[in-house]
Amino acid sequence: MVLTELGSKIAGALHRMTESTVIDEEVVDQMVKEIGKALIESDVNVRLVFEIQKKIKKGVDFEALPPGVNKRKLVQNVVFDELCNMLDSGKEPYRPKKGRPNVFMFVGLQGSGKTTTCTKMAYYYQKKGWKAGLVCADTFRAGAFDQLRQNAAKVKVPFYGSYTETDPVQIAREGVEKFKSEKFEIIIVDTSGRHKQEKALFDEMQQVYDVLQPNEVIFVLDGAIGQAAKDQAIAFRATVDVGSVIVTKLDGHAKGGGALSAVAATQCPITFVGLGEHFDQFQQFEKMSFVRRLLG
Ligand code: GDP
Fold first, then answer.
1. Which residues fall within 8 angstroms of residue 283, CB to CB, at 6 or more apart?
2. SRP54-type proteins GTP-binding domain: from which residue to which, for each copy (predicted)?
3. Closest ligand 1 atom to the C-alpha of 120?
4. Which of 17, 38, 196, 287 is surrounded by the fewest CB atoms within 10 Å?
């Protein structure tokens, strides 16, 4: 079997280590080398890779170990912890504040799950007692307006959009102003996607961003796209100030190795994950279960 996923490669390296008859420095060095190679192949920043390699070796200091320690388990734990640390971007996502408008602008490629995720997040906050509203500023895709309107109706979240207005900047501005004047607290703006990263999309995104000056730009990343995730994240981040990432479709077979590379490359924290097509299949991101899944 060709293991192409980052998670499978790391899991493979760990497995070979645990299968060795003796766990010594040489075996650990070999495993660290393999993990480093897998990370570099996934375009994780080289400096970051060296750092994680160093930390794993430091965490596995056999000479300092009391007798009787299960070395295999220890190595596994150290690798697990360091992968979790890699997901710590060191940057705090925006935390919405009660009693004031908090504007979130969603960006991402078409099909990433952006519209579904906008609805999920509005629903998530509404259930927690926040006043949430949805704005459809996607004038590019036919059907986007109806899709978000229907989604909003299903979860009973107020919706703003226009069938006739073709300027996304205008709709975004009007929708946000309307919700602000009505004292909404969570204002979520769905913007256009495209099938690929292209200039027209980025120009439009930039214009909407300049006008809205949102509190947070959320990049929606399809968890199933593998290593293409990193380039996507970097391209979006280069255009607008992406503050956090939501990874979708982690209910399928995808292990999310691409998401790990994307986060490592952009240093943007993951806040939530999408776990299905239903609006309540949405959870706060949890590092440990993500890494468990990655290696599983
Ligand atoms: P957009 O083009 O980025 O706005 O994407 P949509 O929100 O229209 O979603 C594209 C497809 O992905 C739809 O069929 C959604 O139901 C599906 N989808 C979105 N999020 C998830 C998820 O977390 N899990 C699964 N299985 N499907 C999802």
1. 272, 273, 275
2. 269-282
3. 20
4. 196
C-alpha 86/C-alpha 288 separation (Å) is 11
Residue 195 has pLDDT above 50, yes or no: yes
Q: What is the pLDDT of residues 40-70, one digit of tens each?
A: 877 677 888 899 999 999 999 888 888 888 9
Ligand 1 mean position to 225 CA, how many Å? 13
Residues in contact with ligand 1 by the CB-under-6-Å rule are 108, 110-116, 193, 248-249, 251-252, 274-277
For the residues 163-189, what does the mean pLDDT come to? 96
| HSE-CB for 229 with a 13 A CA cutoff | 32
